[in-house]
Amino acid sequence: MSLRITFITAGRILRQLLNDRRTVVLILAVPSLMIALISAIMDAAPDVFDSVGLILLAFFPFMMMFMITSITLLRERTGGTLERLMTTPTGKLDLVGGYAIAFGVAAASQTVIAASVAYLFLGLETAGPAWAVFLIAVVSSLFGMALGLFVSAFATTEFQAIQFMPVFVVPQLLLCGLIWPRDQMAGWLQGVSDALPITYAVKALTEVQTNPEITAAMWRDLSIVAAAALVATVLGAATLRRRTN
């Protein structure tokens, strides 16, 4: 792995994102607008918004990075860019590291804007520090990036890449505790929920929401999300093939 090639790759991906204004708006503006909409819907129940808005601060980066990474990498696969890169000294770790840096920067920017809007203008309150919410959101986004990298290998069109969302994204939304408390779900659904990484991101956020100090449980739950991101990254890297002819 070459740090120089990794940062060159990250710069190239960031330039591609910045040149696509629709993607920039999707990453930076849409999450804040959606959270503001949820806040308006729950205007009469600010305590409920504190829980829901906090979860969305982590879920939106995960969902956005999954969608954008899968589509972006699919374009590179089908357009021949990835194949050309794999004939150069660029290695798998350089590509994966470049994607992680580029989309990590995008996710961090998204989280800063969305969290600023939620805390400063929408009245979101947490007992714990805002930086912990930021950290959990970024780790969740990296998991989304790694998952998008992996599933892009199984799609041939952008529409097919989006079709993976009901398989990999929607169940995490439905079973993480946002729609309905996990302890009130059927037993087998709780078991499925326990196997989904975003569930642990939500549990980590709950620790931040209810405890003024950073807890060991938060670090444990966050480490599970980070481990899932690492596994997905390894699986995604395995789908990258270097030409030998």
Automatic annotation (TrEMBL):
Transmembrane segments: 23-42, 54-74, 95-122, 128-154, 161-180, 222-240
Sequence similarity: Belongs to the ABC-2 integral membrane protein family.
Record's keyword terms, sorted: Antibiotic resistance, Cell membrane, Membrane, Transmembrane, Transmembrane helix, Transport
Source species, domain of life: Bacteria
Chief place where the protein resides: membrane
Name recorded for this polypeptide: Transport permease protein
Bilayer topology: Multi-pass membrane protein
A single GO BP: response to antibiotic
Cellular compartments per GO CC: ATP-binding cassette (ABC) transporter complex
GO molecular function: ABC-type transporter activity
Domain ABC transmembrane type-2 residues, every copy: 18-243
Species this protein is from: Glycomyces lechevalierae
Location of this chain's protein in the cell: Cell membrane
InterPro entries: ABC-2_transporter_component (IPR051449), ABC2_TM (IPR013525), ABC2_TM_bact-type (IPR047817), ABC_2_transport (IPR000412)
